[in-house]
Amino acid sequence: MQLSKKKSKVLTDLIQPLVEDLGFELIELRARQEHQRNILEVFLDKENGITLDDCALVSEKLSMVLDVEDFFQHKYYLEVSSPGIFRELKSERDFLRSLNSRVKAVFHSPIKGQKTFVGVLRQYQNETITLDNDTHEFLVKLDEIKKIHLFPDV
Hints:
Layout lengths: L4 H17 L3 E10 L2 E9 L6 H18 L7 E5 L10 H6 L4 E10 L2 E12 L2 E5 L4 E5 L3 E6 L4
Parallel strand pairs: 2-3
Antiparallel strand pairs: 1-2, 4-5, 4-8, 5-6, 6-7
């Protein structure tokens, strides 16, 4: 199951107000197929984290809305969850919320000889971040980053 950009936008516009009215932030929507099952994944967050009860509540409300709107013409499974402790950083809000957190960044091309960097996200400004660890400090433009996610010591 794939969502076109247009269908993804329509779905986001449908889901986001409901999620926000319930006190949550919509982090990401993802549609995928696994073992011939269509799955719609909805990732949520809130200030003190997401509980299983939160996921159940949102899942129940979203199921009703999606069924009434008849958004999908085929059978699908709805999964509502937290983005997890290793959540990917994508938006300005993600970066600002994650300042002074440990992250792992993978660059498109090596920077200062490194393709991967684990360190602390120190600053976000004008699509540029500052990363540092005990030995290096990097000033990196977001378009140089292939992927960046939280990388806590666990």
